[in-house]
Amino acid sequence: MGEAVFLTLIALHVLAATAWVGGALFFVFAVVPASRAAPGAGIPDALGRAFRPVAYVALGTLIVTGPLLLMLLGISPGMLLQGRFWADPFGITLGLKLVMVVLVLALTAWHDAVLGPRAHRAGEARATRIVGRAIGLLSVAILLAGLLLAQGL
Ligand code: HEM
Description:
Elements: H1 2-37, H2 43-72, H3 77-80, H4 89-122, H5 126-150
Protoporphyrin IX containing FE binds near residues 17, 70, 73, 146 and 147.
């Protein structure tokens, strides 16, 4: 029973990671170059709006399933308060992963709520592109950190 729940949560976590990271990379490597080739066509804005519900559901799924996975791995909230938990390889990887997750959440909010709409209005998308790339890069690093966690590292 416990194993079935764990596998279900891992499946949801990995599917959500695929949607989130895949979406971020698609924007960096396809949408941005396409919008450079056809400036003023509103490509990033239209695609961003269409994909946003999927991206937000994926991110929400990761934030919910991640802590549940930790619980099922036997890591209680009390353990997280002990300094030595964060000193072994699993704790260090998890700590780095969580810092990057917080950064991605903050950058995504800034990108979607402030920079994106401003770029659409003013036609100047440099800052939005830089932050978008940072989100893509961090998301790949988070995914790799997840692979290490799954190995117990
Ligand atoms: C953008 C957010 C995230 C992404 C892209 C992501 C991605 C991944 C990936 C790809 C794996 C590997 C799964 C496997 O190989 O079986 C993984 C594992 C894991 N993730 Fe995440 N994750 C995210 C957020 C979180 C959060 C917020 C937490 C916890 C608070 C978390 C906790 C874990 C744990 C504990 C594992 C290891 C599970 C195991 O032992 O198999 N993740 N993650």
